[in-house]
Please model this.
Amino acid sequence: MTIPMATPTASRWLTSYYFVRAGVSAAWVAAAVTVGPTMSPVAAALLVAYPAWDAAANLADAQRNGGWRANTSQVVNAAISVVTALAVAVALGRSLHAVLAVFGIWAILAGLLQLATGIRRWSTGAQWAMVLSGAQSALAGVFFLTKATGVAAPGLADLAPYAAFGAFYFLLSAVWLTLARYRRDGAEMRSARSKAAA
Model:
């Protein structure tokens, strides 16, 4: 099922949503790089907050664009992210390897669901970036699971590139939609002027 969202209001919301998600992800990366070498309470909070934020963002976007019933992939994604946040909190009491394993499973599932959402929303524009982001997230999850079984102790900074790529794809989608809206508005203005001149 493809949900039509190409209305100006929906397009503006999606553009703003992608900009916000890019900004939050970039801020998370900056914080992760700063406190990454240590496992402080701040680092632990960042690890729990990342999937929790993803859950809240998916629910907000789904509700704004047709409601939760019409956006099953996002609602399921949000539910998985909530479970992930709780699982990370528990894994923090065990080891960083356990935390990375949780993130690996989450990255795979969330990536596949994001890919599905991007395909379903293809007609809205800029969804190719979301599809690529989802596919890359799934691949990153496999890498996390592999590293979680290794000997070297992982750290918060190991997750920073994953979040950075997420920020990049969200920013790319936002800019793409913005440019598309400017082109569309320009075409409409030229058409209106032509009609007035005639």
